[in-house]
Amino acid sequence: MNWKKYVGMDVPKATISVAVRDAAGKIAMESVIETKSETILEFFHGLGGTVSVTFEEGTGAGWLYDLLKPHVSEVVVCDPRKNTLLRGGNKNDKVDARKLSELLRAGLVSPVYHGDGGGRALKELARSYLTITKDQTRVMNRIKGMYRSWGIPCAGRAVYAPSQRKEWLERLPEAGIRRRGDHLYEQLDHLRSLRQQARKELIAESRKHSASALLRQIPWLGPIRVALAIALMQTPHRFRTKRQLWAYSGLALETRVSGEYRYANGELQRSGKRSSPRGLNDNHNHDLKNVFKGAATRATASAGPFQDFYNGLIAKSMRPSMARLTLARKIAAITLAVWKKGDPFDGNQLKSQIA
Fold first, then answer.
1. Distance of alpha carbon 56 from its chain centroid, rounded?
2. CA 136 to CA 113: how far, in whole Å?
3. Does pLDDT of 283 surpass 90?
4. 146: Cβ contacts below 8 Å, ≥ 6 apart
5. Which is more confident, 80 or 98?
6. Dmax of the chain from CA atoms?
7. CA–CA distance from 326 to each of 148, 220, 297 (Å)?
8. Which residue from 337, 326, 277, 274 is spatially nearest to 300, judged by alpha carbons?
9. Residue ranges covered by each domain of the chain
10. What is the CATH number of domain 4-106?
11. Residue 351 has pLDDT above 70, yes or no
12. Residue of 206, 199, 91 lying closest to 216 (CA atoms)
């Protein structure tokens, strides 16, 4: 008989706690298995029936998703920040696995998108580039922090120039701090070289995707922004509407409203209360937000259809910050439409929306 089973997995590191529920919600099986491919597959092959499984997004979530996908009917990687049920009451691996299986059966898990692995190389190269870039920024901040800790002004970028380093280091009063400066500059040089190499590899890999040449037609989406957009979005078809992309990119407005309806003369009517905006959504992909906001910021300072769109918003008395946000949302919407439809970018369509 083809029984439906709901499997919750808590994946710490060396072992996995598993809880299996039947269609009625009763615990049918519990187990602790080793975090090895052979052991995991052997366990699921022994379940039989129609199996749905869930576990939280984490370090090994991608590997586990690819491992289980061909062997079960459904794999749901869930967002741990939205699993409020796991925060209350007792907490251990066994309890968490039980709660995850309960949430899966009730349809209350919030899924995290995992593709089919076709863009894995580009995604990993994007992660490498972004990580190195952040490391380089940290080292640059440490260099300036070192000088400021001794009361030495260091505004601008001259402090990083190789030709001026000796002069800057001589301003430090002690040998120990000068040696520390040497180490920081060595780190910076190595990271700069590594970042350039990662940048070349990222751009080369992105050009293998057909969407790359298409998205490059959009103003201020250069090779790096296009490569990051493809790597982070993976496919445009995961976003049914532009509003879903805005939410994923941190460009969606969160609103609050209460008491939307009332009864008047025995009929249900809207109360007319306006929703109150609470700012942009917090749960989002920060790197993708930087792609669209960076493109919008550059576009406002350079002639072109996006600057015309921005100036049109300013002419309507919109605040500059809101105009930049609106432009970033517009660039995100255009990116989604161009990628989905495969049509080239047309600046004239954008200009007609300003009027």
1. 16
2. 29
3. no
4. 172, 177, 180, 181, 184
5. 98
6. 85
7. 38, 16, 11
8. 326
9. 4-106, 120-208, 232-274+284-352
10. 3.30.420.140
11. no
12. 206
Is the pLDDT reported for residue 53 higher than 90? yes
Share of the chain above pLDDT 70, in %: 95
- Cα angle, residue 102 at apex, residues 99 and 104 outer, rounded to 5°: 110
Q: Quote the tokens at residue 81.
A: 């920040």
Q: What is the pLDDT of residue 85?
A: 66
**How far is it, in rounded angstroms, from Cα 175 to Cα 177?**
6
The pLDDT, as a whole number, for residue 277 is 66
Helices 223-233 and 175-206 cross at an angle (nearest 10°) of 70
Q: Report pLDDT digits (tens) over 167-200.
A: 999 999 999 999 999 999 999 999 999 999 999 9
